[in-house]
Amino acid sequence: MKNLTTAVFLLLITSVFYFSWLPSPDLSQAAFLPDWLSVWTNQHGIWRTSIPFLLLGIIAPLLPNIFAGILPFLRFSLVLVFAAEFVQFFLPQRHFDIYDIIVALIGAFVGYIIGRFFQYRFQF
């Protein structure tokens, strides 16, 4: 279970960088995404940033050797989203957006609380 959790966590981190570093914010360019998902992400530009961080937050409590609490996880999330946003300075159709950072941290926080609730409720 731990290996699967770690693999999903790493896949989500990779997806943050991949989608943040596409030359265009239009996710319909990612051919492997279903049409409904690329349409939703294009319509909800700022909120789409929170989704992978919400999922990372839900998974993070299952990795206690990496994240001993919410503060280390939020620090990790801040570094991750800042790195993803920083590279957008150098992409002509993208831009650094402080609101993306705020929304990502909100998603990470809410996800971590949900993950801790499930961990407590179902004892895993």
Automatic annotation (TrEMBL):
Chain ranges passing through the membrane: 46-66, 73-92, 98-118
UniProt cross-references to Pfam families, sorted A to Z: VanZ
Keywords, alphabetical: Membrane, Transmembrane, Transmembrane helix
Signal peptide: none
InterPro entries xrefs: VanZ-like
VanZ-like domain boundaries: 21-118
Highest taxon listed in the record's lineage: Bacteria
Name of the protein in question: VanZ family protein
Organism annotation: Lacihabitans lacunae
Lineage: Bacteria, Pseudomonadati, Bacteroidota, Cytophagia, Cytophagales
